């Protein structure tokens, strides 16, 4: 990442003022003339008017020479292309550019300047977002669109935002044709069904009448369908350029007072895009054709990235007016899929978007793992709970895998603690995104965190029980998909409980909550929820589903099975579509097991027999912990965090209603050291 520079190019900045450098790009009427400029040191509190530049560094190949303060400085090809396009013919242009204005060879200066980023971008007149083209490499329609193709996409975006009838007319006709074809297809099916009936069917006749009414009104529907070429034109501007994946750009664009997209000689103001996105339901009425020829709204696809940025820009305006907070975990999660060459920048590159004081040291002398552990602790302190551990959207196959970043060895002492979030990963929240559904632990934990040696976290909670034998296969993992994989629930029932529980509700087949064992079993498989949106099952839903699936599962036991058996939509283990959807979400990642004290659980890799399940103070869902051999001689037991878990009947364990169950199982609080 460091550039080769002459040591005299950068003088020291006064950090007490504080000071920044600005790059004065000198004019030239000749596009091929050398890029020449001067660095100026100015106080950040009262700088001259300047613009900032957001761009993608690209590969760390510093091959293009520019002249700065009469010295040669090598920059990346993409930056060279941007400077040539932005250079005026007759007047200088004052810019702040990270690769030029910061001494990248000085970790101390980089760390200090990062703390100023929020002010640097907030005070610029506007931020110039360089989309390309990179004239030094081959131009394609995708990652590096040509100048004219970028201009074509910008012009289309401008026409859509302005509601230009010459642009919308054809799109409207295409939508009407699509909708008419779709309605006519359904009508043909309904009329064929009607013709096959021996007696008139009132329900079918009503559906036909409804479809015919929809057909007559199809032309009045205010919606638009983009052609493939139109979709691609917008994607060349709003999706394909690599700058949209650069993490630093997310902060820069979220803070700048104004933004201008630049594609060679073509430009597009951000306000045009923002105005379109804010004009609902107009924006939601634009559709495109995607995989499997499905027609879906464009906003969630073509505009996905710019929507996130625009949302953060609105938040920052409200933060400035002191009407809203911008929390650290929310910011990190919103932009978790963006990229940075240094994993530590997954944090440092977004801190400018966080409101209030955050106790995080910005230092490139810290290792990646030290940064990630301290940030996880800071989020716990900010929130007063363990959401960052129990519900984090940064997930790997194991909760404690370490990685190297060129500074530390994965086999050395400096590893990422198992409880700390690995912010370098994308991932997703497997189950518990809706944070108010469960309250397995007490609502809050003690803050500030009690940490030892910067890596061992002290917590409190309750051990629910050790995981018993996992009977499905040798190790935890998703179910083996086979000819009859739909009926994995029945196979698990045979392994753990036996089929007698299907036809019996006697006390000898009851669960610890007092409900029938079969009822507790299937409720465990769907985490006691219905989807979507994900909500807890009601008493009526449980009663209706229970009787229906008992009958279906008993019938399945008497049916022949084998490779020749063809699955059908009517041959599913669950009746309710919402409950079935929940099971389908669970089955790809989770397996059933029973703790040694009889609790029904769902667990994920790499949980195994002998791991314990616990409810921690501040954790909304139970967690799987692995006891470690204690070599410290201390009183507190040490554990490795593995994953989250579902434990039937104890997902509201943190409420006062759990007292009876706590006493019944003989559960007591204890301390944990997470390493």
The global form is flat
Rg, rounded, reads 30 Å
Count of discrete alpha- or pi-helical segments spanning 4 or more residues: 20
Q: Tell me what portion of residues adopts beta-strand conformation.
A: 15-25%
Low-confidence runs of at least 5 consecutive residues: 1-7, 397-412, 563-569
Oligomer: single chain
Q: Separation of termini? A: 32 Å
Number of domains: 3
Number of E-type strands: 23
Strand ordering within the main sheet: 5-4-2-1-6-3-7-9-10
Largest sheet: 9 strands, mixed
Mean pLDDT figure: 86
Tell me roughly what share of residues is in helical segments. 25-40%
Report the structural category.
Answer: alpha+beta
Pfam families: HET
Domain Heterokaryon incompatibility: 50-252
InterPro entries: HET, HetReg/Transcr_Mod
Protein name: Heterokaryon incompatibility domain-containing protein
Structure in words:
- There is one protein chain.
- 33% of the residues lie in helices and 16% in strands.
- It folds into three domains: 19-125, no CATH class; 147-306, no CATH class; 339-478 and 589-675, no CATH class.
- The strands form five sheets. The chain has a nine-stranded mixed β-sheet. A five-stranded mixed barrel has the order 14-19-20-21-23.
- The protein has 20 helices and 23 strands.
- It starts with 18 loop residues before the first strand and ends with a strand.
- The protein is an alpha+beta fold and 675 residues long.
- Helix 5 packs across helix 10 (270-278).
- A hairpin with a 4-residue loop joins strand 15 (529-530) and strand 16.
- Residues 1-7, 397-412 and 563-569 have low confidence and may be disordered.
């Amino acid at each position: 990442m460091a550039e080769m520079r002459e040591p005299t190019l950068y003088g020291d900045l006064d950090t007490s003022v504080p000071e920044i450098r600005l790059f004065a790009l000198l004019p030239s009427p000749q596009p091929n003339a050398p890029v020449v400029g001067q660095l100026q040191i100015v106080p950040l509190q009262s700088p001259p008017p300047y613009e900032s530049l957001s761009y993608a560094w690209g590969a760390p190949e510093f091959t293009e020479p520019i002249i700065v303060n009469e010295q040669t400085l090598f920059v990346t090809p993409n930056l060279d292309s941007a400077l040539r396009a932005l250079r005026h013919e007759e007047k200088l242009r004052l810019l702040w550019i990270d690769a030029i204005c910061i001494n990248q060879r000085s970790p101390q200066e980089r760390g200090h300047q990062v703390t100023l980023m929020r002010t640097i971008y907030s005070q610029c007149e506007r931020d110039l977002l360089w989309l390309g083209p990179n004239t030094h490499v081959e131009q394609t329609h995708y990652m590096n669109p040509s100048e004219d193709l970028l201009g074509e996409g910008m012009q289309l975006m401008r026409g859509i935002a302005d509601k230009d009838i010459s642009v919308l007319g054809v799109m409207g006709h295409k939508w009407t044709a699509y909708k008419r074809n779709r309605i006519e297809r359904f009508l043909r099916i309904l009329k064929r069904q009607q013709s096959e009936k021996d007696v008139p069917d009132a329900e079918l006749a009503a559906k036909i009448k409804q479809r015919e009414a929809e057909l007559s009104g199809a032309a009045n529907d205010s919606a638009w369908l983009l052609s493939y070429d139109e979709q691609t034109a917008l994607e060349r501007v709003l999706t394909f350029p690599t700058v949209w994946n650069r993490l630093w750009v997310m902060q820069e664009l979220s803070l700048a007072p104004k933004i201008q997209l630049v594609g060679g000689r073509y430009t597009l103001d951000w306000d045009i895009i923002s105005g379109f996105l804010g004009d609902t339901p107009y924006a939601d009425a634009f559709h495109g054709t995607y995989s499997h020829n499905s027609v879906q709204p464009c906003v969630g696809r073509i505009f996905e990235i710019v929507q996130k940025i625009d949302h953060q820009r609105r938040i920052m305006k409200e933060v400035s007016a002191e009407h809203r907070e911008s929390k650290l975990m929310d910011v990190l999660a919103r932009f978790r899929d963006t990229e940075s060459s240094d994993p530590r920048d997954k944090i440092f590159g977004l801190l400018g978007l966080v409101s209030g004081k955050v106790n995080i040291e910005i230092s490139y002398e810290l290792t990646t793992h030290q940064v990630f552990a301290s940030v996880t602790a800071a989020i716990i302190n900010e929130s007063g709970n363990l959401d960052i551990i129990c519900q984090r959207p940064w997930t790997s196959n194991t909760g404690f895998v370490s990685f190297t970043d060129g500074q530390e060895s994965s086999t050395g002492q400096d590893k990422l603690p198992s409880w700390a979030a690995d912010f370098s990963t994308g991932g997703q929240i497997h189950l518990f995104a809706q944070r108010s559904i469960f309250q397995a632990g007490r609502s809050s934990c003690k803050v500030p965190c009690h940490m030892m040696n910067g890596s061992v976290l002290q917590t409190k909670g309750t051990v629910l029980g050790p995981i018993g034998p996992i009977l499905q296969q040798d190790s935890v993992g998703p179910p083996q998909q086979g000819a009859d994989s739909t009926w994995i629930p029945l196979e698990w029932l045979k392994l753990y409980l036996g089929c007698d529980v299907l036809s019996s509700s006697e006390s000898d087949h009851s669960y610890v909550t007092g409900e029938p064992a079969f009822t507790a079993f299937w409720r465990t498989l769907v985490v006691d929820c219905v989807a979507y949106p994900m909500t807890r099952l009601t008493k009526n839903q449980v009663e209706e589903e229970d009787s229906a699936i008992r009958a279906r599962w008993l019938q399945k036991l008497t049916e022949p099975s084998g490779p020749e058996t063809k699955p059908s939509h009517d041959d599913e283990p669950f009746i309710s579509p919402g409950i079935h959807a929940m099971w389908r979400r669970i089955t790809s990642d989770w397996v059933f097991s029973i703790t040694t004290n009889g609790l029904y659980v769902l667990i994920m890799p790499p949980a195994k027999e002998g791991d314990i399940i616990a409810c921690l103070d501040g954790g909304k869902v139970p967690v799987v912990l692995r006891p470690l051999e204690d070599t410290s001689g201390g009183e507190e037991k040490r554990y490795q965090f593995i994953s989250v878990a579902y434990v039937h009947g104890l997902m509201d364990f943190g409420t006062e209603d759990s007292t009876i169950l706590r006493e019944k199982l003989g559960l007591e609080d204890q301390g944990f050291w997470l390493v």
